[in-house]
Amino acid sequence: MASFLCSRNFLSFLFVISLFHVGYAARKLNELVQQQPLLLEYHNGPLLSGKISVNLIWYGKFKPSQRAIVSDFISSLSSSSSSFPSQDQPSVSTWWKTTEKYYHLTSKNPSSLALSLGKQVFDEDYSLGKSLTDKQIVELASRGEQINAINVVLTSSDVAVDGFCSSRCGTHGSSPSSKNVQVKGKSYKFAYLWVGNSETQCPGQCAWPFHQPIYGPQSPPLVAPNNDVGVDGVIINLASLLAGTATNPFGNGYFQGPAEAPLEAASACPGVYGKGAYPGYAGDLLVDSVSGASYNAHGANGRKYLLPALYDPSTSSCSTLV
């Protein structure tokens, strides 16, 4: 399958990540310049709905503190606004509500999507080695539950994955169930995504704006809200890919452009995290008075996160929390 790298002429990119589709969508290295938002067309495919567990498959060695950053983020997606006092707005759950607008466009009686933290699977012994192919990513994703679930594969900073850093920071897609599950007589597909920790391999590409970019305008890196450049970068990519998974889980949901290289809910707004964003500048963000860290969303357990802008189908524009 053709990659977004070739179709968008990768040699012309500046330095920030976006999404692409290779039979699935992928977090790509892309230009920071924000183009005029396009209408994301609905291609009549199913969206994820109902109660969905987000299962985390940890491949390689992660610190307990790193796992907590990610698991708290997943838990924050389903937190109601009443769970946070007024000073804890804007929140992760407020950011996620933008994806609900896609469901209202799909049906007059839209179904809802409720995400919750599911099971966690650990492979600290690198059972498939330290250099993985796309096929092996799917194999790892298959270790999670395959019904009413999104399986998230997270690879540690010492694991190489085909295309990682050179053309992408993560992927999302779907795969036939390895357990021969059938729904209404048809083979069931489960949704999955993968994100790599770029801390030692390519933080300038996959953890911007928490690291100096390799290309484009050179502005000082921002302080990461959880004091972990690699994992705070993982959160940005994970958030983008979750939004793409919810609104285009099987390659026939909401997207613009060719199916093999689509723009999705987050990739339609590359490099934008707050109002006033421009190349080399993530936007006007909140700053922690103690740590100096930049963020735009509050999460569970007092967490702070930096989340990407999402395309708002009701306004045909990129929506930011701040």
Write the H/E string, N to C.
HEEEEHHEEHEEEEEEHHEEEEEEE
Our count of helices gives 6
Gross morphology is globular
Mean pLDDT, as a whole number? 85
- Please bin the fraction of helical residues: 10-25%
Question: What features would you describe in this structure?
Answer:
With 322 residues, the protein is an alpha/beta fold. It is built from six helices and 19 strands. The protein has helices at residues 4-7, 64-77, 92-106, 134-141, 203-206, 229-247; strands at 16-21, 25-30, 41-42, 50-59, 113-123, 131-132, 149-155, 160-161, 168-176, 182-183, 186-187, 189-196, 254-255, 286-287, 294-295, 297-298, 304-305, 310-312, 317-319. A seven-stranded mixed beta sheet has the order 1-2-9-12-7-4-5, sandwiched between helices. Strands 3-13 form a two-stranded antiparallel ribbon. A hairpin with a 4-residue loop joins strand 18 and strand 19. It is globular and about 55 Å long. The N and C termini lie far apart (38 Å).
Give me a quick take on this structure.
The chain is of the alpha/beta class. Helix content is 20%, strand content 26%.
